[in-house]
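Researcher: I'm preparing a figure for a lab meeting and need a structural model of a single chain. I don't have an experimental structure, so a prediction will have to do for now. The sequence is pasted below. Please return the structure as tokens so I can convert it later.
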Amino acid sequence: MSAETAQNPRDPMKNPFAPDDSARHAIWEMLVPRDIDAFLAADWSMVEGDFIAENFTGMNGNFDPNPQKWTLSFAALDAYRDEWLRQATANRSTEYAEDPRAAIFSATRLEEIEIDGPAALVRKKFDGRIKRADGGEDRMLWQTLYWCRESAEGWKIAGFVGYLPYAGS
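Model: Understood. Here is the structure written out token by token.
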């Protein structure tokens, strides 16, 4: 940790992109606070408008570094929505010993967004734990690569390769 990092620790709930960097700022807002809040509420309607349904594709890295073991798990947005809701519902039934929202924010890093015209490649990484009331913990250690497109309504998720292994920071 550098002296500068020690003096200015990262605020995981604060958008690291200035408002005048409007594309990156908007993408971070979509993929961090809105996604976390919708997931914790198990409310797909909060994020449904963040996707481009036409030609949506999501791949599952299955936490495996070998691309031969990755799967086309989400050939359409409906398939991803169903899995997202399944995970969100399971999460809501878990009793935590700490604030899960704060823990997820602390585990989430989204600081790399490459923009080329109307397209963006976004790297979202998770490295953290949420303590459960039963004494266990939920480990978050993976990354997702999103491709986003700019539309008349703003930036939207066109697809992703998720559940990729991540060595941590």
